[in-house]
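ok trying this again, last paste got cut off
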Amino acid sequence: IFACGVIGLGGSKHLTRLGMQRVYEHLRPGGTFAFDYQAPWNDAPYWAGWLPENRRSLPLDWFPPVRNPLPDGDELETAVQIYSQDSLEAVSVHKFRARLWRDGEIIKEEIHPMKTECYSKNELLLMLELAGFEDVQIFGDYSTEPATMDHENLIFVARK
């Protein structure tokens, strides 16, 4: 079972643990669960938001938007904002904004919040162990290289 970009979404460590247990239950003996996790400590703006002086100034301004052309000539602009962070619970809320542009004018805008949990490598290893997984390997940045603290993405491969 592969899970790409979903570990930590939802803002509930209980649900993440439950999800790992359910994945374990669905695998046959010897089956593999693989997932990626973006290392938050290597995302400077996000990581800095946990500091007391920065938490008090949340929400931050929107990060510079990215605009991409669509096949019909319209443009889709996306941007993110760090809205709140709770260091005690290791949970943050980001807001995502999407704007549809046509002929230089915004014709539609949507803003949605997303709650995420922040994990250390060892927390994720413990969750996997509690779910019953063994033989867990962690690779860095979608390679076969063992993960280090400098990798932006940690790839967990766990066997039942």
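PB: full thing came through this time. The radius of gyration is 18 Å.
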